[in-house]
Amino acid sequence: MQPERHRPGTGFTALHLVQPVDGGVAQVVLDLVAAQVAAGVQAVVGCPAEGPLAAAAARRGAEVHVWRATRAPGPALVREVADAARLVRLVRPDLVHAHSAKAGLAGRLAVRGRVPTVFQPHAWSFEAVGGVTARLAGRWERWAVRWTDRIVCVSDAERRTGERAGIEAAWSVVRNGVEVERFGAGGGTGEGAVPAALPPLTGIEPDAPLVVCVGRLCRQKGQDVLLRAWPSVVRRFPRARLVLVGDGPDAGALRAAAPPSVLFTGAVPDTAAWYRAADLVVLPSRWEGMAVAPLEAMASGRAVVLTDVDGARESLPPGREALCLTPPEDPAALAAAISTLLDDGPLREAIGRQGQQHVLDTHDVRQTARAIADVYRAVAAVPRPERREPIPQ
Questions:
Q1: Rounded CA gap, 157 and 55, in Å?
Q2: Contact at 8 Å (CB) between 33 and 59?
Q3: Cα 92 from Cα 86, distance rounded (Å)
């Protein structure tokens, strides 16, 4: 893809290098790009053509270039770094913003500090793996700081995880935000009625308890733990239904393990209606930086149950940790928390209202965009040290 370049004569150009192209990372990038375009920033997105990000970013006014890259490191890394370097030379950005581990790896190897560089991990790569791979990932992050003007974390907990790993960086914490009008509009706090706009799913009764989990179907998001917890919930609430919204590499295994009371939507273009249909939203992640789905759920006026991973405590309204947080990979605790809130409608609605106000006050995407703009101004104002290496040809 070689789009026409309609840039103003003056202004600031930010190149977003992105992989992955779906899920929460893609949504964060899309929201940020839309805000930057509205503010007069020339937002450029380099990402794989596969997945929804490229087309969605173009619709929001970004200049989009295809950057071929897989999610995981592998033999293609040399070519991915070279392609990223060519893209930087073509775009001539004022700043490169690399999103998630793979873009952070290839982007920083390509730029090597010659262009102001912001890295946003969106959860640390060394938490996703173990053993030698985790040690290598941590060593790389410590080394790559030399080519990183600022690391942007989405929670204080994510920053502390980086510091514990020995990463000595210039840090900024900019918490994730959501489009509060889109999720709050018409949502209120009334629960349980499946909106007519949703595709029909056999097995959902209009007045049955409905638990919804929105997220990529993968190990990180912990849907397998939720499936292990679910039988205990159904024993207390026989008519309850669990809906897993999304798609991903674990879809087949999860479908094979799921009982009839668990339903799958596959990929959906818009999750807002599912949040509004839910009595309770659950995300049992194994690791995060700060997950977007719980913020969207709370913006919709829904109570949430989360695992106590990075960012979860900071995303909740104050004082709700005991009811809404469970340890990771603990099906019994997860089932107990879900059952407690399903059993108490007034409490659940009160938490939903409190969560909605909390997101309105502290997680509006416009606040996030302004904070990122402050980071860009600070980073771009620093002179380039001459010791930094040329962008590879």
A1: 33
A2: no
A3: 10
